[in-house]
Amino acid sequence: MSWKVKRFDELTTTELYAILKERTQVFVVEQECPYLEVDGKDVHSYHLYKEENGEVAAYARLLPRGVSYREASIGRVFVKKEYRGRGLAGELMNKSLNFIHGELGESEVKIQAQEYLREFYGSFGFRAITETYLDDGIPHIDMVLEK
């Protein structure tokens, strides 16, 4: 299947349910991190995802500037376990950045990344702007990309 990007109000209830189900599976269950996954930012965001075999295989939430940070942001990035190792994460980030730069016209992007992904995000031009810190018990780092 192809990639889709939709505003919150364009998502069908079935699409929204599938997205939230997979986000909860990855960020709450798989990472053993109990937190409020539905945080109120979805309604202000764009949702980029790829469906395969009737399920959400990869996803990123694209936040316009002013929703999480002064800059535009990318969050809730995941590739479902069964689809990892196929290059979907790189494809997802390229599509995310193309949308933010091209469609939203933003030059700066800020992310809160899990520390172990520092090099992955660095390969897209992100640079660390904080030291490593714990968020929900997981080491994170804030990074920015300036085009």
UniProtKB/TrEMBL annotation:
SUPFAM superfamilies this protein is in? Answer: Acyl-CoA N-acyltransferases (Nat)
The source's superkingdom equals: Bacteria
Q: Which InterPro entries match?
A: Acyl_CoA_acyltransferase, GNAT_dom
User: What one GO molecular function would you report for this record?
Assistant: acyltransferase activity, transferring groups other than amino-acyl groups
Q: What is the lineage of its organism?
A: Bacteria, Bacillati, Bacillota, Bacilli, Bacillales
Q: Which UniProt keywords apply?
A: Transferase
**Claim: Transferase is one of the keywords in the record:** yes
Pfam families attached to this UniProt entry: Acetyltransf_10 (PF13673)
Give the protein's recorded name: GNAT family N-acetyltransferase
Residue stretches making up the N-acetyltransferase domain: 6-147
